[in-house]
Amino acid sequence: MTQPIIAILRGLTPADALAVGQALIDAGIDRIEVPLNSPDPLESIRLMATAFGGRATIGAGTVLTIEDVARIADAGGRMIVSPNTNPEVIRETRRLGMESYPGVFTATECFSAIEAGATGLKLFPADQAGTGALKALRAVLPKDMPVYAVGGVGPSNFAEWIAAGAQGFGIGSSLYKPGETAELVASRARELVAALPA
Q1: Rounded distance, CA 169 to CA 127, Å?
Q2: For 62-97, what is the HEC assignment?
Q3: Which of 30, 52, 8, 35 is CA-nearest to residue 193?
Q4: Which of 11, 131, 153, 187 could potentially form a cystine with 164 if both were Cys, beta carbons 3.0 to 4.6 Å apart?
Q5: What are 140-164's pLDDT values in tens digits?
Q6: Which domain holds residue 162?
């Protein structure tokens, strides 16, 4: 079953990609991003997209340019996550048939992202914005536009963010740190999924 979590695997290496990816998918987390500031991220994306493309959405994070978008598409990625709102990147992502999750913090950024064709919005850094900001944004955003809270969110405050209007979460270092075993990632992934409100 698909869970409303995007796993952020910053620092993942190609050697660990398949084992970690499998651990996440087995726990029900089937949206996986490899930030571009990881070691050889395109190879990790290629490996996971080839192995798991039919069961998971594999993509890249920290995507800043349209050139990056093209390289990720060539590697088999189907999801682009950015820390910022760049309409050019969003439009190119959508033109190539990929999902686009740009980073937003203000109403202006939200609506710029929506106008450019974003699939969903990444409220980042969520802990700095706070649930009050999300509630205010949700009052004016289209009801069908998903917002993922990213940065400082976790099991202790999932319910609070969902009550404020979050549809999902991006989870990074509390799920994966470079060099950790797939078994540890699997355990953390199961705990995260169990902590989601029913």
Answers
A1: 12
A2: CCCCHHHHHHHHHCCCCEEECCCCCHHHHHHHHHCC
A3: 30
A4: 131
A5: 999 999 999 999 999 999 999 999 9
A6: 5-195
Instruction: Give the three-class secondary structure for 40.
Output: coil
* Domain of residue 178, CATH code: 3.20.20.70
- DSSP alpha helix (H) spans, the chain: 14-26, 41-52, 66-74, 87-95, 107-116, 126-138, 158-164, 182-195
Number of domains in the chain: 1
Mark whether 122 is an active-site residue: yes
Q: Which residues pair with 122 in a beta bridge?
A: 103, 148
Has 33 been annotated as catalytic?
Answer: yes
Contact 57, 99 (CB under 8 A): yes
> Which of these is catalytic: 33, 67, 88, 183?
33
Cβ contacts of residue 29 below 8 Å, gap of 6+? 3, 5, 7, 189, 192, 193
Alpha carbon distance 107, 142 (integer Å): 12
Task: Say what the pLDDT of residue 3 is.
Answer: 81
Nearest to 81 by CA among 60, 112, 67, 65: 60
Which of the residues 122, 135, 160, 177 is marked catalytic?
A: 122
- State the Rg of the chain over Cα: 16
